[in-house]
Automatic annotation (TrEMBL):
Top EC class for this record: oxidoreductase
Site entry: Transition state stabilizer: 63
Taxonomy of the source species: Eukaryota, Viridiplantae, Streptophyta, Embryophyta, Tracheophyta
Annotated compartments: Secreted
Annotated protein name in UniProt: Peroxidase
Organism expressing this protein natively: Setaria viridis
């Protein structure tokens, strides 16, 4: 694995030169300054209520943003419901068992439409909501670039192909992020979103019963609620130290071999990412700064030129 990981690092610069990285030309932090100046306040208010009711929802909205942006850009394609004639991304294998929070986006959209009809895209709402989710859980904040449009299409096949899975190797993670113009450092920082949230037993059973690079006490604790057969839907926190606080404990856990998913522990498993993981584990400010920068960068991923877009009136269906 180490050789493959190193090769991926060596190719990263070349990949970014060959790929359209983040196309932020049309985005602006002041995009709605005149047309819907209160949008950020509305999003923050609804998100504050949602997170107060269920802290885990903050992690879910962050994941929703990631899973949207990694499939043909940040275009709210993940929000489209299936119909008799249309198959969207919600029920793709990579999303069906791990993405939630759609009703929170609906609640925000309802209030935004009441204030500024037909003005703010669902994609921008998701971008703002994910920023607030991080901050409301104690993490950093940043200025969100706005001006995205909502796609009229979706791609379940791209969702299955583009989204890294819980069993991903370090090398495949580097390659998947590089394909989106995101560096190995971006990948390592963005993975820190797993400092909050939960995962289903189905996704970490293989690690707690079969992998050598795991803390024995941690594995035994996880086995209590994740038996070798059955209980696939049982949840465990990614970070069992501060499960609902957006901090750098994720990296401290990795150094202690307490990563919940195989793909988590791959970031600290004798490869080039080890040094950065150690830095983040000891420097919360560095992690917060790098995470915020990487979220802005990922938020700049745009759909391909020529993709039909609009500002949806209902995030679940095209106009």
């Amino acid at each position: 694995m180490g050789t493959s990981f190193a090769r991926s690092f060596a190719l990263l610069a070349l990949l970014c030169l060959l790929l359209p990285c983040h196309g932020k030309g049309k985005l602006s932090t002041k995009f709605y300054a005149k047309s819907c100046s209160g949008v950020a306040t509305i999003v923050r208010s609804v998100m504050a209520q949602a997170v107060a009711k269920e802290p885990r929802m903050g992690a879910s909205i962050i994941r929703l943003f990631f899973h949207d942006c990694f499939v043909n850009g940040c275009d709210a394609s993940i929000l489209l419901d299936d119909t008799a004639t249309f198959t969207g991304e919600k029920n793709a294998g990579a999303n069906a068992n791990s993405v939630r929070g759609y009703e929170v986006i609906d609640a925000i959209k309802t209030q935004v439409e009441a204030a500024c009809n037909g003005t703010v895209s669902c994609a921008d709402i998701v971008a703002l909501a994910s920023r607030d989710a991080v901050n409301l859980l104690g993490g950093p904040t940043w200025n969100v670039q706005l001006g995205r449009k909502d796609s009229r299409t979706a791609s379940p096949s791209a969702a299955n192909a583009n989204l890294p899975g819980p069993g991903s190797s370090a090398a495949s993670l580097v390659s998947a992020f590089a394909a989106k113009g995101l560096s190995a450092r971006d990948m390592t920082a963005l993975s820190g979103a797993h400092t909050v949230g939960r995962a289903r037993c189905l996704f970490f059973r293989g690690r707690i019963y079969g992998e050598p690079n795991i803390n024995a006490t941690f594995a035994a604790a996880r086995q209590q609620t994740c038996p070798q057969s059955g209980g696939d839907g049982n949840l465990a926190p990614f970070d069992d130290q501060t499960p609902d606080a957006f901090d750098n404990a994720y990296y401290t856990n990795l150094v202690a071999q307490r990563g919940l998913l195989h793909s988590d522990q791959e970031l600290f498993n004798g490869g080039p990412a080890d040094a950065l993981v150690r830095k983040y584990s000891g420097n919360a400010g560095m992690f917060a700064n790098d995470f915020a920068k990487a979220m802005v960068k990922m938020g700049g991923l745009m759909p391909a030129s020529g993709t039909p877009t609009e500002v949806r009136l209902n995030c679940r269906k095209v106009n």
